[in-house]
Amino acid sequence: MTDTLSLRERRIGFFLAILLALLGLTMAAAARHGAMAVHGVIAMAIGVALIFLIAGSLYDPDADPARKDRYYDAPTQAGIFFTLIWAMIGMGAGVWVAALLYWPEATPLWPATSFGRLRPVHTTGVIFGFGGNALIATSFYVLQRTARTRLADAISPWFVVIGFNLFCVWGVTGYLMGSTQSKEYAEPEWYSDIWLVIVWVTYFVLYMRTLARRNEPHIYVANWYYLAFILVVAMLHIVNNLALPVSLTGARSFPVWGGVQDAMIQWWYGHNAVAFFLTAGFLGMLYYFLPVRSGRPIWSYRLSILSFWGITFFYIWVGSHHLHYTALPYWVQTLGMTFSVMLLVPSWASAGNALATLNGAWHKVRDDATLRFMFVAAVFYGLSTFEGSFLAIRPVNSLSHYTDWTVGHVHSGTLGWVAMIVFGAIYTIVPHLSGREAMASPRAVEWHFWLAVSGTLIYVISMWNAGITQGLMWRTYSENGALAYSFLDSVRAMAPYYLLRTIGGALFLAGAVVCTWNCRKTMRAVPMGGSASDRPLSAQTPPRRPFDAEPAE
Amino acid sequence: MLILHYNLEKVSMALVVAIIGVASIGGIVEIAPLFTIDETVKVPEDLRPLTPLELAGREIYIREGCYACHSQMIRSLADEIDRYGPYSLAGESAYDHPMLWGSKRTGPDLARVGGKYSDYWHVAHLINPRNVVSASIMPSYPWLLRPLDTGKLPAELATLARLGVPYSEVMLTAAASDAMAQSRPDSDGATEVQDRYGAGVAVRDFDGNVEKVSEMDAVVAYLQSLGTQTRAALQTLEEE
Description:
The structure holds 2 protein chains of 2 kinds. Chain A has 17 helices and 2 strands. Residues 546-553 of chain A have low confidence and may be disordered. By secondary structure, chain A is mainly alpha-helical. In chain A, helix 3 packs parallel to helix 5 and helix 11 (344-357) runs antiparallel to helix 13 (369-391). In chain A, strand 1 and strand 2 (253-255) form a beta hairpin. Chain A has 2 domains: 1-60; 71-525, Up-down Bundle (Cytochrome C Oxidase, Chain A). Chain B is mainly α. Chain B has helices at 2-8, 12-36, 52-63, 78-84, 119-127, 153-162, 169-173, 175-182, 190-197, 215-225, 232-239. In chain B, helix 3 crosses helix 8. The longest helix of chain B has 25 residues, at 12-36. Chain B is elongated. The model of chain B has no long low-confidence stretch (mean pLDDT 94). At the A-B interface, helix 3, helix 4, helix 6, helix 7 and strand 2 of A face helix 1, helix 2, helix 3, helix 4 and helix 6 of B.
């Protein structure tokens, strides 16, 4: 890490590490006990570790000046490392809590290992830890290649990667200690939220500065999606997390929003976390890695414009479909439903554009498991967006809401689409960064693919059955006009599906473990390299014209 | 149109402004009116805020992640009304920061669970749900029997008061003692809790142990308060 930084950059990094350690110390000293104090100690420990790491290199030789002629991929590599670590943590927690629904007595009777505290560890671990790191890592990679320029700065990408992971660590350790805002997918407390804003602003500034240095007149479509991801997530995060801390020296806060307004803002946030965290950024990934891997240009430029602006405009309206038949005003529910159905148009435009791009490369889809990951991702994107529009229709929602159908729908999107495109991107980037033609074990990629597909299918199909069964049992009346089933009857009926779901999740996790092992093997084999054409434009020798004189010997 | 976009994607700041503009419209149209249209939330006249002990229970409910499996929002559907009671009104959660409507029913809805089961049942159920419901898949919470920390309650009530929850000055200053008194029906402060928060407030020794005020007292007090803070929903359903 430090050998890629100049002496001046190392000194700045050293200074920032001291600041982080002092921030941690201040937090720990001010709070004295509770989650905030532990989080202060964690920040301090990371700061001190960084101080040692950088201090050891302050008097080492300066970085190679020729590094400017290379893309800066070290932060991407670190980001992929964190992506895989969080995959283990987040998916592992997911399989564990899934198992708890089948064996409720399996957990030790410690507060920290209780279902309710582990469940947000799963969601934060996979959404922010796994998904977020993948987005940050790939965005740096894609931005440089599509702008044909090196990242504008060497310190801020590290600040973004380390700072973002600190946010994730604060989040999950907080839940284990019982510190949560209880807003789904926005559980971290107020100081973590402020910290994320600082990280995010740095990310945005770095992105814009690098774009400003681009050597291409046009900004490639992948960057539109990454930009939408950065901008809209900032907007959602700030509005939804506005809260009044009980004390500046404690973790607890109360949201400024209450009741029905809080519900609407929460699901405006919640559904657009799906839209702009779990869709927009990953579409950016798709728009870059699918053409690169298949060797085919994006099928339609017009369609990509239509789908981009369609998604950006329509998605923001749809959050209220989480609140059908509730105390939210009817007109807001109707708007949410209407826009959810309209959203199918840009969603399928994206999915169709991706699949049509593969025309002429279908033999590669057959032979190359990496490209197959991306193909399956596009198919699941199409399927789960169709399902999403369908579930948002009010009468359908009356059956599906509050049931495991929603859980199945979410996982068809996150396992089938988000995770698949991440693995496709990882299998493209990792050999590239290691200067190799392919992953260390192509057979392991093949194994991973089939584990992931079978795991996803088992999971999603069992949850469809579970959800529809629940929904129907809850609303069935007997001949004499009374409810036919007690709630407990529906709980009993879930047992086989909960078992199947655990197995499906375990298969998917096993695939991720194989991927991690394979990436480690690939990255260790050969030091970082990269082909001669994979350079910023400034570093590439202009092609010689025929009438140029031979250079003098 | 295509030419316009052809030029737009050459200017990064223009792209940024366009994204923010396009992505803001939906939220503004759907959210802003919720604060300005008066009929959206009619706060029932008889709605009372949670007592300090109930609020402490709510904080534990949040801490343990109960909301992940239990909703507190009865939809206006016949089977839900038959199963759980009158459908929920916006006004009922007007003082809830945050709302706990939930999104999943791995367990049943709790919006009107108050008064449905005895305190004794709740205590046994929370210590080990399978003691009372053999097929339950709910986790056990034996650690709730530890003493309740009432030290933060005054500051918590004060924070909520700043956000518009009608806690009076007296309620704030008496928060910690009110929390103790609500679970000690024979103590001096017991009647004061009912004076301050209404005669409907349950003043009982919830966990069956008079010696100490436990987290169990708080959670059970909270669960028994759910759906009893106002009678507005029942009246609305009767009028229809």
